[in-house]
UniProtKB/TrEMBL annotation:
<feature type="transmembrane region" description="Helical">
    <location>
        <begin position="6"/>
        <end position="26"/>
    </location>
</feature>
<keyword id="KW-1133">Transmembrane helix</keyword>
<dbReference type="InterPro" id="IPR013879">
    <property type="entry name" value="DUF1761"/>
</dbReference>
<feature type="transmembrane region" description="Helical">
    <location>
        <begin position="111"/>
        <end position="133"/>
    </location>
</feature>
<feature type="transmembrane region" description="Helical">
    <location>
        <begin position="80"/>
        <end position="99"/>
    </location>
</feature>
<keyword id="KW-0812">Transmembrane</keyword>
<protein>
    <submittedName>
        <fullName>DUF1761 domain-containing protein</fullName>
    </submittedName>
</protein>
<feature type="transmembrane region" description="Helical">
    <location>
        <begin position="54"/>
        <end position="74"/>
    </location>
</feature>
<dbReference type="Pfam" id="PF08570">
    <property type="entry name" value="DUF1761"/>
</dbReference>
<keyword id="KW-0472">Membrane</keyword>
Length: 134
């Protein structure tokens, strides 16, 4: 790893892309209703959540993930294809962790695929951004 090859504006954009993907992924038009049902949450309960805490920590964790992925990609050979591939592979890793936790929490496969699928897609896009923006 060559830390001088980390593009910090790209890391920031990659982290923000997680919000865009999440907004679409967990919308009622896509998987939001199924996720809420499998999470046993109601719209009223979600509205009661502390938005500053939720979105603040979500951004912090997205930034950590993007910076970590950028560190792995900090090589001269990195390009869009390798960035997307590395992001996809990181997403598979995250999927496995989500599946493991969810199985012990007695969650169903739909829940696992919704949350794990988000991680795969979000990290693939993060990797593509980091690989393309050299």
């Amino acid at each position: 790893m060559d830390a001088s090859l980390i593009n910090w504006p790209a890391v920031l954009v990659a982290a923000l892309s997680g919000f865009a993907v999440g907004g679409i992924w967990y919308s009622n038009s896509l998987f939001g209703k199924a996720w809420m049902a499998d999470s046993k949450l109601t719209a009223a309960e979600i509205k009661k959540g502390n938005k500053a805490k939720i979105f603040g920590f979500t951004f912090l964790f997205a930034l950590i993930m993007a910076a970590n992925l950028a560190a792995f990609l900090a090589e001269p050979k990195t390009d869009l294809a390798w960035g997307a591939t590395a992001g996809f592979l990181a997403g598979i890793w995250a999927f496995g962790a989500i599946a493991t936790h969810s199985l012990f929490e007695l969650k169903g496969w739909r829940y696992i695929f919704i949350n794990g699928g988000y991680s795969v897609v979000a990290l693939t896009i993060m990797g593509a951004i980091l690989g393309a923006w050299r």
